[in-house]
Design goal:
11% helix, 219 residues, mainly beta
Length: 219
Amino acid sequence: MFTCDFEFDLPDELIAQHPIEPRDRSRLMVVDRQRGCWEHRTFDELPDLLRSGDVLVRNNSRVIPARLVGRRAVTGGKWEGLFLREVPDDIWEILATTRGRPIPGEHVVVGQGLHLVLESKTRSGSWIVRPERDGNRNETTLALLEKHGQTPLPPYIRRGEGLPGDQLAYQTVYAQWPGSIAAPTAGLHFTAELFTRLAASKITWVDLTLHVGLDTFRP
């Protein structure tokens, strides 16, 4: 049976910590299956590599600010969570890390003062939490995340520590529908100018929406 081993050594100094500008100047490996060879090009050469009539499929999911950083109200210890999803009755499921052993009923304070009440822990290790909205019951979950959350970077990028420009850099230029907790990274290299060139070459595209969830972080 054919198997693949994706475990290999990748030195830290070879992992880009900031996106290249412009985006479409990133490197691109082109594999020629007929000739059994490959070559190194740049992403802005894509219109020259595709043919008239080809169709690209884009994932127009938008990354939400799902990273929540704060502290435990009782101990003051650092607490960090990753919003996974909203469940019925105004409850969130969150993957959390902190020192010590939080217990149900504890409060954590994140962002600009949002209180989260720890309700229970799931069998998979995530937490069910209830956000306290301080009287504004009409504020949506997305609005709360926009106010109190941060861009969820993968751990190999600055150990997840965000910078002011990350919200724009870690988003495709065609992102539309919010819901992903990580970027559909294959699309990050496209620019508006590149789509103009693709259209001029009679290369079209269609959109679908596939929100990226927790499984993208799992082995």
